[in-house]
Design brief:
Distance between the termini: 13 Å
Largest sheet: 5 strands, parallel
Number of helices: 5
CATH topology: Rossmann fold
Shape: globular
Strand order of the largest sheet: 2-1-3-4-5
CATH architecture: 3-Layer(aba) Sandwich
Number of strands: 5
Order of helices and strands: EHEHEHEHEH
CATH superfamily: Response regulator
CATH class: Alpha Beta
Helix content: 40-55%
Number of domains: 1
Amino acid sequence: MATPRTILCVDDDPDDRQFISAEISRIDPALTVIQAHNGVEALEYLNTAKTDHQLPCLIVLDINMPLMDGKQTLSRIKVDPLLVNVPVVMFSTSSNPMDKVLFQRMGVSMITKPSDITNLNQVVRQLLSHCA
């Protein structure tokens, strides 16, 4: 069961997490953003959320992170029957076309991080469109 007002933002860059979280809150103050620094923290949060029946409505996942990167984290999410239907958006600086193909095959959108924060509002609105 998803909790429609929670988004899990997973990124090792504290500035990126803060920019995304602040913009989400500015666009829709009713949304709660949970932050995780890497895939290990994200999966720990998701395991607790499964137990509490409080899954996020969206997971925003960076690709390049320490301990467990976004691809590994996504693979773990996609094999879990309780998490498989939670929308995931890969949000990264990567412009690798092979990444886009891989994520598309997995049923996941990939959005490239803006090079500066002037486009952040538009990008966050695009992210939020995945949160039903």
